[in-house]
Amino acid sequence: MERLCGPKLPFWVANQTLHTDSPDLPECFQLSVLSWLPCVYLWLACPPYLFYLQRNNKGYIMMSILNRVKTVFGLVLWIVCWTDLFGTFHELQQGDTKPPIYFVTPLVVGMTMLLALFLIQFERLRGVQSSGILFIFWFLSVMCAIVPFRSKILQAKYQSEISDKLRFTTFYFYFSLIVAELILSCFNEKPPLFSNIDTDPNPCPQSTAGFLSTMTFWWFTSMAIKGYKNPLEAKDLWSLNKRDSSEVVVPKLLREWEVEQAKAHRLLISFTKQKGAPTWWGYALAFLMFFAAFLQTLILHQHFQYCFVTGMRLRTSIIGAIYRKSLIITNAAKRTTTVGEIVNLMSVDAQRFMDLTTFLNMLWSAPLQIILALYFLWQNLGPSVLAGVAVMILLIPLNAAIAVKTRAYQVEQMQYKDARIKLMNEILNGIKVLKLYAWESSFKDKVLEIRQNELNVLRKTAYLGALSTVAWTSAPFLVALTTFAVYVTVDKNNILDAEKAFVSLSLFNILRFPLNMLPQVISCIVQASVSLKRIQDFLSHDELDPESVDRTNTATDSSVTVVNGKFTWAKQDPPALHNINLMVPQGSLLAVVGHVGCGKSSLVSALLGEMEKMEGDISIQGSVAYVPQQAWIQNATLRDNILFGKAYNEQKYRCCLEACALTQDLEVLPGGDLTEIGEKGINLSGGQRQRVSLARALYNKADVYLLDDPLSAVDAHVAKHIFDHVIGPEGALQGKTRILVTHGISFLPQVDNIVVMVEGRVSEMGSYQELLKQNGAFAEFLRNYSLEDIIEEDEATEALTDEEEDFPDDALSNHTDMVDNEPVVNEAKRQFIRQISIISGDLENPKSRSVRKRLCSERKHAESDSEKKLPKVAKLIQAETAETGRVKSKVFWEYAKAVGPLLSLFICFLYGCQSAAAIGANVWLSQWTNDAAQNVTQENVSMRVGVYAALGMAQGVLLLANCLLSKAYSMLRAAKLMHLYMLQGVLRAPQGFFESTPTGRVLNRFSKDVDIIDSHIPDNIDIWMRTFWYTVNVLIVCSALTPLFLLVVVPLMVFYWWVQRFYVATSRQLKRLESVSRSPIYSHFSETVTGSSVIRAYGRHDAFVLMSDMKVDENQKSYYPGIVSNRWLGVRIEFIGNCIVLFAALFAVIGKDKLNPGLVGLSVSYALLVTMSLNWMVRMTSDLESNIVAVERVKEYSETKTEAPWEVEDKKPSSDWPSQGNVEFSDYSVRYREGLELVLKNITLSVKGGEKIGIVGRTGAGKSSMTLCLFRLLEAAGGEITIDGVKISEIGLHDLRSKLTIIPQEPVLFSGSLRMNLDPFEKYSDGEVWKALELSHLNKFVSNQPAKLELACSEGGENLSVGQRQLVCLARALLRKTRILILDEATAAIDLETDDLIQSTIRTQFEDCTVFTIAHRLNTIMDYTRVLVLDKGQIAEFDTPTNLLFQRGIFYGMAKDAGLAQ
Question: CA angle, 906 as apex, 900 and 910 as ends, to 5°?
């Protein structure tokens, strides 16, 4: 340095700098180090930065005023530096030789200014709006120039005149310019030209935020303010960033910083000991600590931001992967994983990965921190540290053991949770059946049993958790205790003074963080590995082989070919179809017929590639359209359901509607074809659903049509209309290849070929005439249903008919020629023109009343004048509400009540005690260290150690007591009660509730929200309590030591409170929006899973994946600001914490003469920790607020409006009631909902026990309403129903419903054994169950199964055919065998023979019972005792069938149209 500066200018003078009250740096140091530092930085940073800019071009920015000013200032700076240089040359000529440094420095600085100038322009051309590199450069330059700035003024003050006027002037020029540049670089440039213009209405300001704003998350403030003023809504959210990433700032820096802080801390304490040191050292140290901490804050939060964003992407990708996979897994795999389980994979397991990413860095940074801390400790205390380390190492295996055990429990808990959700899903899907059969309590017990197991596992987990918490919380204390004890006892000369004790404590606290985190990280990794395993299992399920159906083969002229086909549903099952050989010529119509369960639907599935192909070949030429047996309808508008992603073409669309007989339905739906259809098509009748499904196939122009019994759910007329206009030889599909599965014999003569299936084989195949000639099974089958002139039926069909359903108002009752049964030309033929009709299982859904009328195309009616236009009806499914505003204190109170109010107070008190014990131990330590100053050490070492140990132990014991009391006992009790009340609330809710609430939403409450109450809230409360007491104690200690501290604390706390209010308001609302936008992901998902075969058949796989992705993005849109809000808060809160540290240190410096070192140490080491606890506290407050919302949501469902009580004790009917079966209606009226018209008006009639009553009437006459009234699914609006003298409105619902039997239209089965499905309360013996099966013709099927009665039914009874399910429902009825039977004519989806069997079973088995049959076909009730004809909700006629025919009224008209009367 001497060669540069010359002998006159020394580089370093200790007396001038350190040991003086007015320090200054020598000129040589100023000219070299301080001037070169920023320059070196910029030249080093430049090459990588330029390389980065080369790669990332964002388009150039126009010259702006800002840019011009920056450039001009840069030029002036360069000129100033060179003026300096030329000045030196000028002096050289004058003969005044300066040392080389005066040439070198201006040259270097000048060159650097040129580089900065170049960067300003280059960034402009590369589209950089705000430069971090230059900002740091200007900042460094200003910082380094402050010292010369001061020393030049001091020199001028002491010297009479300024010796070096030129440099004095240029320096101040230089200083003002760099300050100006620093200020200018805080502002942003305009966005680049030609950048892909953000058409985004609400772009995320992050992309345009400047460097400073990004570092402090200032850009988020706008949302925080908006959220504070009024609750955020979805429209306020920013769109998701395309790039969504931020620079990784290696966490290594953070570790170094923490160690830096510890060093600074040590210096501060040694400073308070040196009474003679200059005061400015203390101030400098205090500010140094402050800056170190502040920088650490900024870096830390950028790093967290990066981690969270990565986690967010990971979750997106996992959900995407699972969704894509679920579209292509085989049926066997589908059987092993239910929808509930997959939804769990998406919600819980994907979340686990998200949590993991934030911790992953800890895996390497934690050990690093531990090593550094130990190194400094060794320097401080020597080998005694090893004693402490030994304690830590001993704790590790303990925690590892706990972690392993916890993992096992977690897997177990997940299994119970899956089972519970699966069961809930079924209960919700079959709720109507549960209500009709009064089975709720049986299913409630099943759910509660699973729940109890789940809680037991949670309790065990809580015990383990308590142990590990205690181990970790006491760890730093135990370590300190052993270390200090060993240190003091090993050697007489070892004195524990303030410096050693508190620096060690600080280091132990630094140790505490990684040691605390490690088990958390480990458990996180453990959880994630469990989840990973589950996700891996799911993603490695077998996929359907896309090649199993050959779509390329064009050699043959037949469009569908199967050769030696052998198919099974799952590889391990016996084959369901064997030896299938099929050739379907191009453009022909093939019918597939056979008994229930003979493999007709399986054949269609095989052609779609849904089954496992064991041997053989299938080839299909061209595209495929598919109509499944049970229509799959999306929650979208009716039009979207039909278009199914194809472009809208008015004319083609109208033709489809006309052909599928949907035109008239649209006129009556509230919004026409834009009506929103609920989940699973809940507000359409079965027939409408089927026709929409058919219209979808027709609209999607395909080459091959696979129609799986599309005619089963509609009335005969409609069936004929559809056959003629769509499927048949003259229909819209003529010329296409059609494969039709059907039960309707009447259409068979018109098809090209018929395949007869028997037990999974093709028994015969040929045209109608050929099969008759072959005289095989088919001919036999037809002969039973004596075939006569089928042709005649055409004239008879020209009647106007319509489907069975109820309406609040009957728009059509003025058409007298509308009939409610299908035409039968003569008695002989009526057998096989029986048609099949499944009608909506949601008959009492008031919003779905859509009067339907249909005309056969031959007869047109002028009915427009009679048509009442229905007003627009509200959306069926109300949007899920997100609570807004502050969480009401009521919710916290609810939770406290569930825990127990006194207990809650006691728990709070315990937390306070535990915290007090911890503080006590440290205060004691500060007393101990003061012994060193008074030299009274040796006498009371043992006393000091003993008390210290006792205080520490007390802390551990209190903590353990607390954990056990709160987590393992009271909070679990609260969780148990809340789930119980919600379950009760949902099961007791009236039927209407389930129609307007999608199942996904209810399930979300039972999975996610219950999970939060089980595991998240207890943790939140625990951490909140600990940090709260901790913070309070710190402030008390600091204020007690330096009362001045209070002056600062008050404004800081006000600021803190203010930031926290802003944050909590915004963050809570974001959390709510996030959970509301989460439900659609799962609803859409479960919808997709049920319709996966349809989606695959139409090749809409990609479109659905896209829809799912959009829904996930929508969800992330509210999640992302949530992450940022945490960072925004963190930066601000830690700033407050750093201020507290600064002031604690400053006051220590000010009062250094009065304070003893021990207390200073105590106050500063506490202040250092307060930052973290403040941060945690706000975070926990907000987490708690957003999680307590779960209590609010669970509460909401436990307080739903309930139906009447299940049992009324004082009105219980006798056990053999009803013994006769007399039913009386007196002046009875009913409506669906408040505000709607009456459906039944003043009905009065009485039925004697054992009578058989047929109920007929037009659409909307109120037939089904009568049955619902008997079960009180609809409550009376006036009048009474009495059964055997008991008024049904007075007794409990279960007492009533368990004494009536219904065979509903839609067969519902629950997963579980077949026996459970027949007899959930296990009231009957096996013998009785077999008897019922025998009478319902299922015994052959069941006894062939290896499991017999324990045959497992899958979710929704999927593994039985629809016909078999219907028979199971019949068996249920036979088993209950009550005096009153109601038949909602349940002959859908059953072939003709089975149908006859059922009818005869009912006639013989229920001979002495009162039977009400809602007849869709008059021939079934012609031999009944009496027939009730309803019209517009009133009784039109009520008499024996013969008398009614004789009266020639409405009934006669119907019978005549049906060909049953002349």
Answer: 140
Q: What angle do CA 532, 535, 538 make, to 5 degrees?
A: 150
Q: For residues 828 and 628, is the Cβ–Cβ distance under 8 A?
A: no
User: Which structure tokens are listed for 1119?
Assistant: 């999640």
Q: Mapped to the 3 state alphabet, what secondary structure does 113-182 carry?
A: HHHHHHHHHHHHHCCCCCCHHHHHHHHHHHHHHHHHHHHHHHHHHHCCCCCCHHHHHHHHHHHHHHHHHH
Across 1085-1105, average pLDDT: 85
User: Residue 367 CB: number of other CB atoms within 10 A?
Assistant: 12
Query: CA-to-CA distance for 677 and 632, rounded, in angstroms?
Result: 12
CB 254 within 8 A of CB 1091: no
The pTM of the whole model exceeds 0.90? no
E runs forming strands in 3-97? none
pLDDT tens string 401-436: 887 888 889 889 889 998 899 889 888 888 888 888
What pLDDT digit, counting tens, does each position of 483-532 carry?
A: 877 887 777 676 766 667 767 776 776 676 676 667 677 777 887 888 87
Q: How far apart are CA 183 and CA 180, in angstroms?
A: 5
d(Cα 304, Cα 308) in Å, to the nearest integer? 6
Q: How high is the mean pLDDT of the chain?
A: 76
Q: What are the start-end ranges of the H helices in 935-1016?
A: 941-963, 971-988, 991-996, 999-1004, 1010-1011
Judged against a pLDDT cut of 70, whether residue 1151 lies above it is answered with no
Task: Return the DSSP state at 649.
Answer: -
User: How far is 352 from 344, CA to CA, in rounded Å?
Assistant: 11
ω into 1218 cis (within 30 of 0): yes
> Which of 239-248, 319-328, 357-366, 608-617 is predicted most confidently?
608-617
Most confident of 170-174, 195-199, 310-314, 1415-1419: 170-174
What's the maximum distance between 2 C-alpha atoms anywhere in the chain? 142
Q: Within 13 Å, how many C-alpha atoms sit on residue 459's CB side?
A: 14
The number of beta carbons lying within 10 Å of the beta carbon of residue 452 is 11
- Residue 676 sits at φ, ψ, to 5 deg, of -80, 130
- Nearest-angstrom CA–CA distance, 214 and 23: 37
